[in-house]
């Protein structure tokens, strides 16, 4: 079953075509990687799926239903969550509050309940706290619960973004360079987390990453973009040895990947 | 209700304190903002009278003290100051306010505390029409001033097409409407009726309208700071017909601002020409000597308002056997004043607190000089 | 000769102590790398040197001169260039204007032109996009711009904070090559990298920082082979 | 020595003793002296001290309620200044509620609103028009003025009217961001004021610049409410409700959504938070507090005109919020109290005092420097000083501290009960 | 109705341009400071007002020295402009140093408070000084360039009425345009101008480019404030009378103009200023005609603000502003 189907997706910025005619499908429960040189249009692709940009052309189907034209919050409610390449946390809020914001759509409390401090609302809040705590624990962030998000180091901020995205209980999670700013060891840990998380939270993952080790290890399917176009698609082995990909993107790294 | 009596009683019974022979009188006028010149003038006039009388009261065993308040021409500020004034046991009277918009709500407070107000310049009808026992005013009302202006404009100046501008304040609207009603009754046509924004400096837009309507008189309801600019800008545009205004324009500020353009401007005022009598002249000289400033028309009203109040106070003291009277007694004594002779106006209050002898005066600016030349006066 | 000497510095963010006595030095012509996990204090160290963070205790000497707590524009004028973490491009300036800002203290149009051409030889993409707003460039393009901008002032000591972050593998190689080239041209380099393999492979020496303290030091090679380092950072 | 002293001060029992002593001294000073602004202010400041004491929240509230409902009104009733104290306290309450409302909009949701006083005006006019004969100019039915007992209903109506105005303004306005929003709200605020100032023609709704006088005072079971001490209690009740509501909101999903929108709109949207709806809610709720107090204000003044609703007034409320500490509820309260007391009482008293000195010849002051004219100046100086020395505000906003241990405990309990999540609490291999 | 509107149009345009050019130059000062600190410098209106007083004082002093009448008016004006610009420029720098720099790291709105505080202080200081010197704080300056010229528009096109203007109109207009063009050049084309923009986006990084951030900010304030002060002088010459409170309303209007044009954008500020002046003038001259007397000139601000709101609804970044692209 395909959870996401994209066809002929195109985005133009003035004269610049950032995405041109991209079509792809993502299998439910899979981990897909989108790779490509800098400026290839990967982030733009994510932006269109999440409603941040409106496509110039093309169709995006989530579980068979079009989500083109929806606002980002509506897209989020349909079950797509994401992280950002340039970290976008709620800097002045604490770590746990960031995660609680992620749960926003799942909390049912209304104005009346809040004003009157009704038992339902209270219970829901305390459950949410527990859930948030667990998520943070999952990413080893529980020591920072009451810290301001902006005071975390770069790497921890990245993890918090993922935790926050998971808190929305998405069906589809888009990660934009989750390992950027992490050292190889941390990257390895992250690789495991992503893999486990996909299963435990029952979420399909698409990720953009320049760390080839992570990409090759984790993804079932890889899509390669260059100059806004899809130049290759396939499983890691196919991509590793694809001359187009080597030339445009991997360079010598391909050799090292071969070695392993 | 009950608590008003309570506090009233407290004020009267607690007079045995150490400084019980100090009587304070507040002035409560705009000392900052657009009306400050007049507010200041009233304050200084009142201060002068108080200082003149101080020794006399000293002999009777009382120390007079002036307590100036700034209402900033803002009703809210006025009301909260009024509460402070009410709280001060020693304050018996208030000279003020100038702006009717402040006088009306503040006087509600004075009424609660039995503090006598003698008003030297608020002309709106509502000031006295609410029937408060503490409110007295020594100047004429808008429904007297406005029509008087209209009669002069139509009958004497022969205005047929009148363009009316007002500043959209309580005062401006009040006087302009009173003027319009009478002018229309007298058969003149109101060819335009426009409002402006106080505080701006460019009224060319409205003046262009006036220019186009070719009126034979422009009436402005508002105060000198805007009036001066309108006069100047109208003259710049070549509008040479008479321009007329009310007491709000009766200030040296008008001449400062409009300069030469002030010629052929008429004003009605509730303030008489102080220099027209010898006492008035003397007052002006003393004032100048004391404060190093020319007296404004309203300086003398501040002076007389204080005079009226002190007269009432004195009467009340005497009636109380030379001892400090309760505030209610002062309220009544002031209202009862008849034929008080001030430097500028005689004062006899009617049952509402309006001065029966209040007059409306007409002036014309023949040159760039303040005060303007006296043209005539109208009594009730 | 020692270009940079950091003596036992302590730096705080409000009440949080980020550096707890960091010491190390960089010799002329060296490439020195700082490695360490997230939050160890690598960026804070660089910020302390360039003057973006206030040092509470300790001293920093540059060419023998005390530069502790000098303001950032002063340290740059002395020849220290700091490429900050997260690119920090002037979003609403064009690529060209961004580069010109890099050369703010440089006098002479011709010199500036020449340096700009030089930057373009490293990063041709920047030339193509001369008039694009910096903020709309892709992440990798911004990184190129950030490095290019720092090169415009031809620094004596170049401090790079995670320059390879977010770059395509092929560009990462280029970046490391460029770093080597720059170093050969005589620029001393202090490199903070998460890409510890590659950093250690080009560095003469390295320091491992942990919880705001230097815990280990050695040549690039030594560190790359050190078991602890492997265990903790290289995986 | 110093340390010992501060140790001692940390002790609960010492704190309580000192505090009680303080209250007793100040309140009796207030009660027995005829007019002592200083003791009044000190007594008020006991609330601030209370805020900083380390007592249980519930205890603090109980003490505060006792102070507000009993001690303060009682202690100030000792002298003739009673009503002036109550007047100041009432105005303080009114401004606090407004500051709390604006704090939602500016502090929490990060929407800079420079026209906030408009909502106050809407509330004030909705009561004034119907509590005078003004309404008969355009209402085809009913008899006006309405009786004073409708006041209580109007509290709600005023709140709702203001909220509606907030939404009406918000819908178009929220398309613009940041300081553009500031300017658009400023423009709207002015538009509303100008319209109120001119709606005496063609149909006389508001009586224009003349203002509406003789507004029917509220009536509670036949008791006419006309004195400041009576308003004090009305305002106090409303205020307590407001504070309660704001506190609840702040730590609810709505409060978090506001802050998220403030911090990063794009990320907030990505979390499923609808921007427009969330912002509108902030506008509407903030406005409604203001509207309710507008009704009270109109009833208390018995006269309103558009000069009470100027731009400067909006600024003043903003100053209260920022001075107190943006986003901070106790901050907004303190900011509002401080600015109001400063403007209405301290500066006036101070200038009176200076004036006395100059009249007695102790100091000589040239006319241009008459103290009464210097209130604004002094206020300006104080603003600058406050802002510079307390850059984050008097009581900076604090994030809620979650009790980690407690949450952990609950998490473990839950994990034990439901075995589904049993293995996801396992750490990732380190 | 339209005929009547047409008749007055030439005069309305002239008056609108006059007011508009004052708005425009004051708006420039706002835009500059806003551009660099994201601070709505509400004290700018007061700097403008102070400039008006300083300029008037300079003129009065020179003329008072007796030989003033022998100096050509234009030279007199230039002297007054230069002295004033210098004084208010320094004043602006001083204000920045004392009131804004200490709160630079604080939340943005805190600076708004100090700005309001500074406004109050300036208003009163000017009032006090003026009152002590002249006995009255409303001051009327010497009339320069007050010769009236009539443009016989009606002789070209009879649908129009003649329009009249003061010579000072040209001076105000030319000065305003001159200031804007040079400022535009400075900010967009020179190194220091670019540095100003860089600092406005990211102060830390700008410092890493060896830009002395404090100096750049000080320069910005100097320029913005000297423009504001100089405009004050022009205002005093055109309108004659000044009081310490002219800065507030005019400042707000100018800020609105800046926003309408696209804040941070110099050409936008200038365009917005002229536009607002024209709209206001048009509205106060024609509203009652347009609505058959139901809404008069008193609604001119409502009219102008409504247009502002409309503009921002359809172009939230202002007329000439460029949408700030935030790359996600
Ligand atoms: N809002 C925008 N306006 C103009 N151009 C844009 C905009 N957003 C992206 N671009 C351009 O579109 C192209 C694709 O950008 P995108 O961010 O999608 O690249 P990317 O594949 O994510 O690169 P990287 O790996 O470096 O992050 C780039 O050339 C970029 O400059
Ligand atoms: N602005 C800040 N405010 C408060 N604390 C901060 C701030 N910046 C960093 N810190 C804290 O200082 C410590 C060191 O952070 P620093 O950014 O130097 O780490 P780093 O080694 O560069 O990590 P990374 O690899 O994740 O970038 C961390 O604990 C971090 O939480
Ligand atoms: C000129 C005005 C401000 C005073 C006026 N006489 C009034 O009643 O308000
Ligand atoms: Mg990207
Ligand atoms: Mg770092």
UniProtKB/TrEMBL annotation, chain A:
Annotated GO MF terms: ATP binding; ATP hydrolysis activity; L-isoleucine transmembrane transporter activity; L-phenylalanine transmembrane transporter activity; L-valine transmembrane transporter activity
Cellular compartments per GO CC: plasma membrane
Pfam family, one: ABC_tran
InterPro entries membership: AAA+_ATPase, ABC_AA/LPS_Transport, ABC_transporter-like_ATP-bd, ABC_transporter-like_CS, BCA_ABC_TP_C, P-loop_NTPase
Domain of life the protein comes from: Bacteria
Residues of the ABC transporter domain: 4-252
TM stretches of this protein: none
GO biological process: D-alanine transmembrane transport; L-alanine transport; L-isoleucine import across plasma membrane; L-valine import across plasma membrane
SMART domains for this protein: AAA
Swiss-Prot/TrEMBL keywords: ATP-binding, Nucleotide-binding, Transport
Keyword Transport: yes
Name this protein carries in UniProt: Branched-chain amino acid transport system ATP-binding protein
Species the sequence originates in: Ureibacillus thermosphaericus
Upper classification of the organism: Bacteria, Bacillati, Bacillota, Bacilli, Bacillales
From TrEMBL, chain C:
Biological processes annotated in GO: L-amino acid transport
CDD domains tied to this protein: ABC_TM1139_LivF_branched (cd03224)
Xref: Pfam families: ABC_tran (PF00005)
SUPFAM superfamilies reported in the protein's UniProt record: P-loop containing nucleoside triphosphate hydrolases
InterPro entries for the chain: AAA+_ATPase (IPR003593), ABC_branched_ATPase_LivF/BraG (IPR030660), ABC_transporter-like_ATP-bd (IPR003439), ABC_transporter-like_CS (IPR017871), BCAA_Transport_ATP-bd_LivF (IPR052156), P-loop_NTPase (IPR027417)
Residue ranges of domain ABC transporter in the record: 4-234
Keywords: Amino-acid transport, ATP-binding, Nucleotide-binding, Transport
A GO MF label: ATP hydrolysis activity
Family matches, as PROSITE patterns: ABC_TRANSPORTER_1 (PS00211), ABC_TRANSPORTER_2 (PS50893)
SMART domains reported in the protein's UniProt record: AAA
Family stated for the protein in its record: Belongs to the ABC transporter superfamily.
Protein name per Swiss-Prot or TrEMBL: Branched-chain amino acid transport system ATP-binding protein
UniProtKB/TrEMBL annotation, chain D:
Major subcellular location class: membrane
Pfam families for this protein: BPD_transp_2 (PF02653)
This protein's record includes keyword rRNA processing: no
Subcellular location: Cell membrane
UniProt keyword Transmembrane helix present: yes
InterPro entries: ABC_transp_permease, LivM-like
Protein name per its UniProtKB record: Branched-chain amino acid transport system permease protein
Transmembrane segments: 12-31, 37-54, 61-82, 88-106, 111-130, 150-171, 178-196, 231-249, 280-299, 311-329
GO cellular component: plasma membrane
Its membrane topology: Multi-pass membrane protein
GO molecular function, one term: branched-chain amino acid transmembrane transporter activity
UniProt keyword list: Cell membrane, Membrane, Transmembrane, Transmembrane helix
Automatic annotation (TrEMBL), chain E:
Keyword set, alphabetical order: Amino-acid transport, Cell inner membrane, Cell membrane, Membrane, Transmembrane, Transmembrane helix, Transport
Keyword Cell inner membrane: yes
Position of the signal peptide: none
InterPro entries: ABC_transp_permease (IPR001851), BCAA_transport_permease (IPR052157)
Gene Ontology annotations for the cellular component aspect, listed alphabetically: plasma membrane
Main subcellular localisation: membrane
Subcellular location(s) of the protein: Cell membrane
UniProt-listed CDD domains: TM_PBP1_LivH_like (cd06582)
Transmembrane segments: 20-40, 47-68, 74-95, 107-130, 167-187, 216-239, 245-266, 273-296, 302-320
Molecular function GO labels: L-isoleucine transmembrane transporter activity; L-leucine transmembrane transporter activity; L-phenylalanine transmembrane transporter activity; L-valine transmembrane transporter activity
Gene Ontology biological process terms, A to Z: D-alanine transmembrane transport; L-alanine transport; L-isoleucine import across plasma membrane
Topology class, membrane: Multi-pass membrane protein
Keyword Transmembrane assigned: yes
PANTHER family: BRANCHED-CHAIN AMINO ACID TRANSPORT SYSTEM PERMEASE PROTEIN LIVH, HIGH-AFFINITY BRANCHED-CHAIN AMINO ACID TRANSPORT SYSTEM PERMEASE PROTEIN LIVH
Family: Belongs to the binding-protein-dependent transport system permease family. LivHM subfamily.
Protein name: Branched-chain amino acid transport system permease protein
Organism: Ureibacillus thermosphaericus
């Amino acid at each position: 079953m395909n959870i996401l189907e994209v066809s002929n997706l195109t985005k133009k910025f003035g004269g610049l075509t950032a995405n041109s005619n991209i079509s792809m499908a993502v299998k439910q429960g899979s981990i897909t990687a989108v790779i490509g040189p800098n400026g290839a249009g990967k982030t733009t692709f994510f932006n269109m799926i999440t409603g941040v940009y409106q496509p110039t052309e093309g169709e995006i189907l989530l579980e068979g239903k079009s989500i083109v034209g929806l606002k980002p919050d509506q897209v989020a409610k349909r079950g797509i969550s994401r992280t950002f390449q340039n970290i976008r946390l709620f800097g002045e809020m604490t770590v746990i509050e960031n995660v609680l914001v992620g749960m926003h759509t799942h909390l049912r409390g209304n104005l009346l309940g809040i004003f009157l401090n009704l038992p339902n609302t209270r219970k829901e809040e305390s459950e949410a706290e527990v859930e948030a705590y667990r998520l943070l624990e999952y990413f080893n962030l529980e020591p920072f619960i009451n810290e301001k998000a902006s005071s975390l180091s770069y790497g921890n901020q990245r993890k918090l973004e993922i935790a926050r995205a998971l808190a929305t209980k998405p069906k589809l999670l888009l990660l934009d360079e989750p390992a950027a700013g992490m050292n190889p060891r941390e990257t390895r840990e992250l690789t495991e987390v992503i893999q486990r998380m996909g299963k435990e939270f029952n979420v399909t993952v698409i990720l953009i990453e320049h760390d080839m080790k992570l990409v090759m290890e984790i993804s079932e399917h890889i899509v390669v973009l260059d100059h806004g176009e899809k130049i290759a698609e396939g499983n890691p082995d196919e991509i590793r040895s694809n001359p187009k990909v080597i030339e445009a993107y991997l360079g010598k790294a391909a050799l090292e990947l071969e070695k392993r | 209700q009950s608590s008003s009596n309570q506090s009233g009683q407290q004020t009267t019974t607690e007079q045995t304190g150490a400084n019980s022979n100090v009587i304070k009188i507040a002035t409560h006028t705009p000392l900052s903002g657009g009306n400050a010149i007049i507010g200041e003038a009233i304050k200084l006039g009142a201060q002068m009278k108080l200082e003149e009388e101080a020794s006399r009261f000293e002999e009777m065993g009382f120390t007079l003290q002036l307590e100036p308040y700034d209402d900033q021409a803002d009703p809210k500020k006025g009301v909260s100051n009024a509460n402070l004034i009410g709280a001060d046991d020693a304050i018996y009277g208030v000279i003020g306010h100038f702006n009717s918009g402040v006088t009306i709500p503040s006087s509600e407070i004075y009424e609660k505390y039995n503090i006598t107000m003698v008003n030297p310049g608020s002309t709106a009808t509502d000031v006295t029409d609410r029937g408060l026992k503490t409110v007295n005013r020594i100047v004429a009302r808008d429904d007297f001033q406005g029509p008087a202006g209209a009669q002069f404009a139509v009958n004497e100046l022969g205005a047929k097409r009148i363009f009316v501008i007002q500043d959209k304040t309580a005062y401006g609207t009040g006087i302009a409407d009173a003027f319009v009603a009478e002018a229309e009754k007298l058969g003149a046509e109101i060819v335009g009726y426009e409002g402006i924004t106080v505080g701006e400096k460019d009224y060319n837009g409205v003046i262009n309208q006036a220019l186009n309507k070719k009126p034979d008189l422009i009436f402005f309801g508002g105060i000198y700071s805007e009036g001066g600019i309108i006069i100047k800008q109208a003259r710049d545009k070549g509008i040479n017909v008479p321009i007329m205004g009310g007491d709000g324009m009766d200030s040296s500020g008008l001449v400062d601002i409009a300069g030469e353009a002030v010629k052929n401007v008429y004003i009605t005022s509730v303030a008489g020409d102080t220099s027209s009598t010898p006492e008035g002249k003397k007052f002006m000289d003393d004032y100048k000597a004391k404060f190093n400033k020319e007296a404004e028309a309203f300086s003398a009203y501040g002076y007389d308002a204080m005079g009226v109040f002190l007269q009432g106070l004195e009467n009340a003291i005497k009636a109380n056997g030379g001892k400090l009277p309760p505030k209610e007694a002062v309220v009544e004594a002031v209202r009862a004043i008849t034929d008080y002779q001030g430097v500028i106006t005689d004062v006899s209050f009617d049952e509402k607190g309006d001065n029966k002898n209040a007059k409306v005066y007409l002036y014309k600016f023949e040159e760039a000089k303040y005060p303007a030349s006296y043209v005539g006066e109208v009594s009730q | 000769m020692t270009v940079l000497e950091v003596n036992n510095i302590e730096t705080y963010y409000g009440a949080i102590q980020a550096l707890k006595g960091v010491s190390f030095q960089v010799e002329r012509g060296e490439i020195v790398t700082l490695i360490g996990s997230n939050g160890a204090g690598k960026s804070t160290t660089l910020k302390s040197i360039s003057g973006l963070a206030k040092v509470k205790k300790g001293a920093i000497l540059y060419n023998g001169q005390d530069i502790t707590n000098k303001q950032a524009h002063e340290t740059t004028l002395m020849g220290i260039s700091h490429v900050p973490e997260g690119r920090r491009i002037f979003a609403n300036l064009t690529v060209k204007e961004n580069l010109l800002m890099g050369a703010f203290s440089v006098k002479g149009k011709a010199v500036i032109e020449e340096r700009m051409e030089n930057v373009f030889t490293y990063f041709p993409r920047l030339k193509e996009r001369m008039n694009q707003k910096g903020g709309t460039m892709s992440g990798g393009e911004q990184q190129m711009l950030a490095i290019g901008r720092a090169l415009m002032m031809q620094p004596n000591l170049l401090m790079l904070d995670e320059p390879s972050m977010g770059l395509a593998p092929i560009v990462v190689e280029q970046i490391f090559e460029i770093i080597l080239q720059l170093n050969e041209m005589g620029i001393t380099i202090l490199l903070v990298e998460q890409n510890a393999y590659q950093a250690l492979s080009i560095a003469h020496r390295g320091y491992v920082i942990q919880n705001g303290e230097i815990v280990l030091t050695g040549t690039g090679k030594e560190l790359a082979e050190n078991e602890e380092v492997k265990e903790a950072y290289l995986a | 020595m110093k340390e010992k002293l501060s140790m001692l001060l940390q002790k609960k029992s010492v704190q309580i003793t000192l505090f009680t002593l303080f209250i007793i001294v100040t309140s009796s000073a207030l009660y027995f002296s005829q007019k002592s602004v200083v003791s009044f202010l000190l007594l008020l400041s006991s609330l601030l001290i209370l805020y900083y004491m380390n007592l249980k929240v519930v205890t603090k509230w109980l003490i505060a309620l006792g102070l507000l409902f009993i001690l303060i009104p009682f202690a100030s009733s000792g002298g003739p200044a009673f009503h002036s104290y109550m007047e100041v306290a009432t105005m303080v309450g009114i401004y606090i509620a407004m500051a709390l409302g604006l704090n939602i909009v500016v502090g929490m949701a990060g929407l800079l609103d420079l026209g906030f006083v408009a909502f106050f005006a809407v509330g004030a006019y909705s009561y004034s028009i119907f509590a005078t004969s003004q309404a008969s100019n355009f209402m085809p039915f009913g008899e006006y003025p309405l009786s004073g007992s409708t006041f209580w209903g109007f509290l709600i109506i005023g709140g709702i009217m203001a909220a509606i105005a907030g939404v009406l303004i918000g819908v178009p306005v929220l398309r613009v961001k940041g300081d553009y929003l500031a300017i658009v709200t400023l423009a709207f605020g002015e538009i509303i004021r100008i319209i109120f100032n001119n709606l005496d023609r063609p149909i006389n709704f508001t009586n224009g610049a003349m203002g509406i006088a003789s507004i029917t005072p509220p009536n509670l079971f036949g008791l006419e409410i006309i004195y400041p001490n009576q308003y004090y209690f009305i305002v106090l009740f409303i205020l307590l409700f407001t504070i309660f509501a704001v506190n609840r909101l702040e730590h609810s999903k709505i409060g978090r959504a506001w802050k998220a929108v403030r911090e990063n709109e794009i990320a907030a949207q990505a979390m499923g938070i609808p921007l427009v709806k969330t912002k509108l809610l902030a506008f509407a709720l903030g406005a409604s507090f203001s509207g309710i107090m507008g009704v009270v204000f109109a009833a208390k003044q018995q006269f309103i005109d558009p000069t009470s609703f100027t731009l400067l007034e909006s600024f003043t409320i903003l100053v209260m919020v920022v001075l107190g500490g943006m986003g901070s509820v106790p901050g907004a309260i303190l900011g509002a109290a401080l600015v109001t007391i400063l403007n209405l009482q301290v500066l006036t008293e101070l200038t009176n005092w200076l004036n006395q000195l100059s009249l007695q010849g102790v100091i000589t002051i040239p006319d241009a420097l008459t103290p009464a004219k210097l209130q604004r100046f002094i206020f300006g100086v104080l603003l600058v000083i406050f802002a510079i020395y307390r850059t984050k505000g008097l009581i900076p906003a604090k994030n809620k501290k979650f009790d980690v241990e407690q949450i952990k405990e609950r998490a473990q309990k839950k994990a034990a009960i439901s075995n589904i999540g049993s293995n996801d609490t396992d750490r990732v291999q380190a | 109705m339209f005929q009547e509107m047409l008749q007055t149009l030439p005069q309305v345009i002239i008056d609108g341009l006059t007011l508009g050019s004052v708005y425009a130059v004051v708006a420039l000062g706002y835009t500059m400071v806003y551009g660099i600190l994201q601070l709505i410098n509400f004290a700018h209106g007061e700097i403008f007002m102070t400039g008006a007083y300083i300029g008037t004082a300079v003129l009065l002093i020179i003329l008072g020295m007796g030989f003033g009448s022998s100096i050509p008016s234009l030279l007199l004006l230039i002297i007054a402009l230069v002295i004033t610009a210098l004084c208010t420029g320094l004043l602006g720098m001083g204000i920045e140093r004392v009131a804004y720099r200490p709160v630079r790291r604080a939340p943005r709105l805190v600076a708004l408070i100090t700005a309001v505080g500074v406004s109050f202080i300036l208003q009163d200081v000017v009032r006090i000084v003026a009152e002590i010197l002249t006995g009255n704080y409303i001051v009327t300056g010497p009339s320069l360039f007050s010769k009236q010229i009539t443009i016989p528009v009606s002789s070209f096109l009879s649908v129009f009425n003649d329009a009249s203007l003061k010579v000072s109109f040209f001076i105000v207009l030319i000065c305003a345009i001159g200031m804007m063009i040079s400022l535009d050049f400075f900010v967009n084309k020179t190194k220091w101008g670019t540095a100003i923009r860089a600092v406005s986006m990211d102060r830390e990084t700008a410092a890493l480019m060896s830009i002395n951030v404090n100096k750049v900010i000080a320069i910005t304030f100097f320029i913005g404030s000297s423009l504001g002060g100089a405009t004050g002088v022009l205002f005093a010459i055109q309108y004659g009378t000044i009081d310490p409170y002219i800065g507030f309303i005019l400042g707000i209007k100018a800020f609105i103009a800046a926003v309408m044009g696209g804040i941070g954008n110099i050409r936008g500020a200038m365009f917005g200023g002229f536009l607002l002046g024209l709209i206001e003038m048009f509205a106060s001259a024609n509203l009652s005609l347009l609505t058959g007397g139901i809404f008069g000139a008193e609604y001119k601000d409502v009219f102008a603000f409504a247009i502002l709101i409309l503009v921002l609804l359809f172009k939230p970044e202002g007329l000439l502003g460029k949408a700030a692209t935030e790359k996600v």
